[in-house]
What we know:
Elements: H1 2-13, E1 19-23, H2 29-37, E2 42-45, H3 48-57, E3 63-66, H4 75-78, E4 84-88, H5 91-103, E5 108-114, H6 127-134, E6 145-152, H7 160-178, E7 190-192, H8 199-204, E8 209-212, H9 214-217
Parallel strand pairs: 1-2, 1-8, 2-3, 3-4, 4-5, 5-6, 6-7
Pyridoxal-5'-phosphate binds next to β8 and α9.
Amino acid sequence: xxxxxxxxxxxxxxxxxxxxxxxxxxxxxxxxxxxxxxxxxxxxxxxxxxxxxxxxxxxxxxxxxxxxxxxxxxxxxxxxxxxxxxxxxxxxxxxxxxxxxxxxxxxxxxxxxxxxxxxxxxxxxxxxxxxxxxxxxxxxxxxxxxxxxxxxxxxxxxxxxxxxxxxxxxxxxxxxxxxxxxxxxxxxxxxxxxxxxxxxxxxxxxxxxxxxxxxxxxxxx
Length: 221
Ligand SMILES: *Cc1c(COP(=O)(O)O)cnc(C)c1O
């Protein structure tokens, strides 16, 4: 029952244009089913094996989001069903997603992950690397991936100013791309930012997609 209440409490705070991705990593399928029964359809996982196992057990109309760091060699395991890959952080990974999507005769939506936190442990492009990639002639040959926006994770800190300025930084990257290389792409519209601890700030700074785990399912061990 608590999951349903948590979900509606969060949904009450989200403007209509902001999508809630329920981050269910480490949680058993029973709890995902509970969220599903409460109406939630988009779920986020950060490990390929866990994502594949859960997908097989749960209803087929779930939209599965891969939110974690994705290894190139594991793309083929999720290419047939994944709805959105949030963490594209290298050209090599993007090319592999394109290849596996083509094999499955589909187009896979992805987000470019930017490194916005000061913590060097986090993955992601910087703007220079994205420009380098988008200047590569090979980039335009990728017909089976669609870049629909950007994603980032703020520093894990209680200092609101730090988190806010990192989210602003991601929104600036988004706007630069939106006004540049993606200016013709009406589908380039997503900014995936905000987790349990910081999603209200993320929304104020332009998030269109929040990835919320513990505030829905409880703390992970
Ligand atoms: C775990 C995770 C989340 C959700 O974290 P919570 O603090 O539990 O809301 C969001 N995004 C990514 C990439 C994650 O790995």
